[in-house]
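Deliverable D4.2, example record:
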Amino acid sequence: MYSLFIVWYLFLAGMGSGAYVLAAIFGFAGGRSRAKGLREYREITRGGFYLGPLLVMFGAVFLIFDLGSPEKAYRLFLSTRFTYLTFGSWVVLVFCLLAAALALLRSTDRVRLPRPVFKTLELIAATCALGIMGYTGLFLSSMPSIPFLNSPLIVVLLIVSSLATGSALIALYGFFNQQRKSMFFGSRIIVRIDLVLIFIEILILAALIVASCFGGDLSAASVGVLLAGAGAPAFWFGVVLLGLAVPCVVGMLGRQSSHMVNQAISSTAVLLGGLALRYALITAGLHVADTPVLLLSG
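Output generated by the structure prediction step:
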């Protein structure tokens, strides 16, 4: 079953891969566009290129902790049977090695690759980051014995959440580098993108709750745990208040004020909400799945 190590892995790997995907998309678009907004965004999203691989690597450490030993992690790469865990392990490994190498190349002028080669490698790394986002959702939803988590909406929800937390991470990178003018303008764009992602996240989360209420006894029981049981504090305070309400309110106030402190508060709330979301989902699913009475009634 899933542990708290998995919660941290899903959070860190999702946030890191989401930041890298956004950096790659808008970095490429900004490099080919004359629009000022995209050029400024290209500058701030450099944070995704540097922080993304570090967070995915750190998240992989928690995955090893969950497996119990480095030897078990090593065996995943030797397995001939396809599983989400085996696939994800290879994707994480390729991404970390390639993204780390590209980050080193960006930080030095001593070694330069031809631009087409560099961009091709960057595209491969971004594709791996997309794989990590999708795989983390598939990994969490791959347990048929937990109907609440065994839903395609979980996959979509975690992908959107990964992009939202990745966007918030980039915004914080801009906040701590706000002495550069480009960071100020770029952070305004990234926060707006984050708001759009949060609204999408609200819709998907609402759809998941409604669908689970009509998805059978176990799914409905999980909703009860999420809204009024063991997962309620993390859900209402962490997800709803910090992860969704605070960014929306600060975003609305941001129309009248562009102060980067407000943006930093909003981004920090999004990150805390992303962590709380994964904890609340797993708590709701496992709490019900481990309850013999409910299992027998199902």
